[in-house]
Amino acid sequence: MSASEFIASRSFYSFKKSFTRRILYLSVLATSLSLAVILIAQSIFNGFQKEIAKKVFGFWGHIHITDLQSSQRLDPIPIRLDDSVVARMYGVKSSQTGNPLVEHVQSFIVLPGILSASGQSEGLFFKGVGRDFRWNFFSDFLVGGRVLHPDDSAHHRELLLSDETARRMKIKPGDPVVLNFVVRGELLKRRLIVAGVYNTGLAEYDRKFALTDVRLLQNLLKLDSSEITGIEVFCKDVLEAETANRILYDEVLPENWYSETIREKFPNIFEWLSLQTVNKVFLLSLILAVCIINMATTLMILILERTHMIGVLTVLGMPLREQRKIFLWYAARILGWSMVIGNGIALPLLYIQHRFQAIKLSEADYYLDHAPVDLSIGPVVLINALFFAIVLLSLILPSWLVSSIKPVKALKFR
Q1: What are the residues whose beta carbons fall under 8 Å from the beta carbon of 41, sequence distance 6 or more?
Q2: Can you give the three-state secondary structure of 105-157, one letter per residue?
């Protein structure tokens, strides 16, 4: 143990003036609250971004594949998906690790039409899905009824409708509806039964889309079972989506197919999420700055309180550098207690919100009905480490106040 650490440990609890003790208590309280707010804010910001991105990816996958000319034409352009293409998609691997990048591939057909029920009509995009469709995402957001069963021939004339559309048209699971399509200039009608109602919270998509059996749309468009209009690719790691998309487009897909990541297809929502990162950095930096000012003020008060001790140590020959370390040890102790209290405040509150969802949000405005939290241990440890290091390093400059104290005057100070 160094001399500065020994003196700091023996003298830290010997502040006798009630004013100085109050300053220490207030400093610990303010610093712990600053850390608690930082932990809570970053957890909510991260949780918000992850949950919104998770919803968008769950709705569309990570990579979207269509015919090259589909964006230039209103009528659907079919592409033929055979087993060999699917096998090559699953065979896409990372050039660095050699691990597969693609987790799941599913096909679909999107066809615009009009939904009629209860004397009302609503224009929608009807998304036809097949037996390769993963229902785990929509199962989590069912508010009534059940999901579709495209592999069951007895249930191929069913519809999965958004809760917003169902409420607006006064439809519930089990009700009959009529779908109207214009195909090759001919009006075609099909009678379906509403199997279930979902609500993802993504109103922009919910109000526009309904799901049905892909065989119904293939029949309307006179397509065979291998012809669809688009493919959704889910990656094992969302961070590898760009790499997987590049490999798919350059090496796997036919020349007349076009692939793009969902971030490229729907840039607005991801740009909005990126903007939240800017807000997060600004807010956390502001809180950290307030905390540093608070700790610097406390440190200078402690230096003034220990003016006589500084004079004695200077006369005894202790270098000013070692004396500054004494006060940095004081600051480290204050930070240590503050971090224990701050984590003790933030982590239980975050767990309560994660478990009971006490804080509610307007789903129409925020895409979520509650404030999400990210309880990953990595960010918590990183924030604690950075908080301690940044605050302590920022106190090196205020500790130079020790150098300005003259020994003769300090020995007279009581």
Answers
A1: 280, 283, 284, 287
A2: EEEEEEEEEEEEECCEEEEEEEEEECCCCCCHHHHHCEEEECCCCCCCHHHCC
> How is 372-408 classified by DSSP, letter by letter?
-----HHHHHHHHHHHHHHHHHHTTTGGGGGGG--HH
Reference 238, options 91, 53, 368; nearest CA is: 53
Q: How confident is the model at residue 70 (pLDDT cuts 50, 70, 90)?
A: confident
Question: What one-letter code names the amino acid at 147?
Answer: V
Q: Give per-residue pLDDT as tens, 280-338.
A: 999 999 999 999 999 999 888 887 777 666 666 666 677 767 777 777 888 899 999 99
Find where tokens 């009529």 sit.
178
Domain boundary among 223, 254, 285: 254
> Do 105 and 137 reside in the same domain of the chain?
yes
Token representation of residue 261:
């990541």
Q: Which domain holds residue 93?
A: 69-254
Cα 406 from Cα 320, distance rounded (Å): 11
Q: How far apart are CA 176 and CA 234, in angstroms?
A: 33
Report the number of distinct structural domains present in the chain.
2
224 CB-contact burial (10 Å; exposed 0-12 / middle 13-18 / buried 19+): exposed
Give 24's pLDDT tier (boundaries 50, 70, 90): confident
Q: Could you give the CA distance from residue 413 to residue 186 in angstroms, rounded to a whole number?
A: 99
pTM for the whole structure: 0.86
Distance, first Cα to last Cα, the chain: 29
| 348 touches 25 (CB < 8 A) | no
| Residue written as token pair 């991105």 | 53
